[in-house]
Amino acid sequence: MDDSARRLLQRIMRRIPAQMLKPTLDKWGRLTAAQRQSMDFTESKWALTEKLLAICEENEMTVKHITELEMIHVIENPDHCMWYALQLMDPEEDVHSVELTQFKEQFKSHLRELIRHVSIKIKKHTDEAVWIRIAWGDSFSRPNHLKPTYVVHHLQTPYVFVTSLTSKLKPLLSQALVLSTRYQAIKDASLSGRKLTAIRDLLMRQYQQVFPTKYPSPLAENDQNASNILINKEQAELAASRHQKAREAFGDGMLPQLQSAVYKLETKFRDHTNKTMTEREEAFRCVVKFASTNLLESLRHCASSGIASTPGTSLLSSIPLKGRNYFVITDNSPGPSSQTRQPSN
Amino acid sequence: MSWNEEAQNVGAPDEPVLSTVSVDLRWDADDRHGRLEGGDERQGNWKAPHAPVCHQELLCGSLTPSRQSVVESDGHGGGQQDGKYHIVYNREVLLVGRVHRDRLLAAAGEDCSLDNYLDKTNNAKTTTSAGVLSLLSLLEVQARSRRTQPQQQSRVKELKAKIEALKVQKQQLEAEIETHQNLQKLRSSLDKQCADEEDVEMEEVSENSQLLRLMARHTQLKDLLHAHHLIGGYDVIKTRQGKGVCVSLATAYEGVYLDTYNLEIDLKPTVKISRHNIPPFIPVNGLAEENDMQVNMRAFLDALSQHLNAFAGRKQQLKLLKEQHKSVEVMESNVLCSILVLMFKVPRAKTAVLCTLDYTDHSRCLPTRVHFECEDKQLSDSDQWKKNHSLLMETPVHKALTAMKNMGDIV
């Protein structure tokens, strides 16, 4: 086992939390029963790392095997890195007939054409998601396994989620993706977040949306169970209608956990009391960032509790509606405009 | 003392009130006994069977000496009776006001024994616990109404006015019924016309008939929409004060309702979809363009409903397959459920058969192509498996697999 493999294994062991160690190793399945038994999981992690290194040496494992372990861990806990969403545009005729093996072959061959030293690993998860791990090298050096890029894609959907991609490598990945999925272009979907499940649910519309309907669900019953029926609230009707509007704008139940929303303003300064600023010709640039542990939940609560008036501003309700959390607002269009942006590294 | 003041006195709260006073307020100075039985036809409400009811009402109606309520409750009696009282009370009646006492004594001068009364009517049931105050207030009212004849006149006027109002209401209701009947006739003719596809006969083109025609058409459309909703089609409601609609598309498979998808469509200024909760692998925008949503909304909705129902059907088939046939391994599937690769185990030959089902027509629940792959070439060419091929092409996959298991082709 060479040096890079050893370092990789050490890094992976540092990342995996102690309680997840045993299940992850079991899933990896590369240790024999005897070896598994010899690992005492009550020891300190450092000791376990040393033990595992020894076992891997024994089994003559290569980097390839160790990257499997890393991939298993990342698939289980995808929330450690920042994920960025990309959208594929202009499907071609046969986009729906792309099946897994075809996609795998095409992607690997296209990416290998573009960059010589690259290590690709593709795995299909049970929820129909295709996970790709890419370690980039260049013409002179071997692939760097310490900084891999992970790509998640659901076939037949136009969305791709990537982590940690430098701007130099982005066009290469984009090209490979476009060619293997039978689309014609790819663009940035202006949606990023730490939780993969959240941004995926937002784009695939997997959260509970509320629509006006002739046959409303028994909402009133839920509310009654919550509060004391002996208390008759004065503004119960108003509160219920606010609640309904908030749910129509943002959704019902558990909302996808976005962490931030960024609005980049490029509008002219408008304030009657401040003449000097208003007189300037050029746009007043400013960036407004909303951050929270669960942004959509807090926005919905603002609307339903009456802090923000309903119907809320379309700028905030565009976040779930359009499935993005980066907006550039200019004077020409009153609503949020779609602009491309480079993901920051 | 005037009557008003006396009224106040009677109502004074600190005066003792006794219970079990039974009062029958028919005062017959002449015949103290006879009125209870049979009664007089001229004053129908004084018949014996009515007595307890009246009685009850009178007593219950006035615990406070408000004249209004007392007049109302003995309204029948007060206006019409010609001042005949018959008072019977318990020996324990306590007289509280001097004036009232005098009156009562005057009234009750003659023979008015409780026993007599009870013998005749068995009226013990109607005694209430209203007390003597109520009794006195009732008496007061009775006496007053006896005196003031003009009150009858105003009462009559009131009733006449009420009659007029009720007549007007009756006319309105009759007009409504007539309109409704016309509407029903028009509706039935419209329905028949739709069934026969004939032209409409224009009778008189008066404003009324046009309006009625429109209303009939409106109700027809509403009923059609409701029927459509009941059979599991889509349902449409207006939103944003008529500027938009929200369409709910229900999906079902084999008689089981599955997910419902919603679309909000703006109608003004242009017809476009504002939001929806349809997953991204169903090409909503593509279908909208294909079917020209601006012009032919119904075709678009029908196509979309077909796609969604087919998707829900395929998804349900996959779910049932996984539940019912655990021995069959699902090698590949995708979110759109447009491709399915299964691994069968053949019992005797101990080989595996890889079966690929392609659902390239996304508006159907059945596959467009079935392909078997097996190491043993002979197996896939055998008659049995050719039959299985057509079985899989024509029946839903979970049912086909059950049939194949029954025939012993797969484990």
TrEMBL record, chain A:
GO terms for biological process: CENP-A containing chromatin assembly; chromosome segregation. One of its GO terms (cellular component) is chromosome, centromeric region. The keyword Metal-binding does not apply. It holds the Pfam family CENP-N. Signal peptide: none annotated. PANTHER family: CENTROMERE PROTEIN N. This is Centromere protein N. The lineage of its organism: Eukaryota, Metazoa, Chordata, Craniata, Vertebrata.
From TrEMBL, chain B:
This is Centromere protein O. Residues 149-186 form a coiled coil. It comes from Acanthochromis polyacanthus (spiny chromis). Belongs to the CENP-O/MCM21 family. GO terms for cellular component: Mis6-Sim4 complex; nucleus. Its main location: nucleus. The keyword Coiled coil applies. InterPro entries: CENP-O. Keywords: Centromere, Chromosome, Coiled coil, Nucleus. It is found in: Chromosome, Centromere; Nucleus.
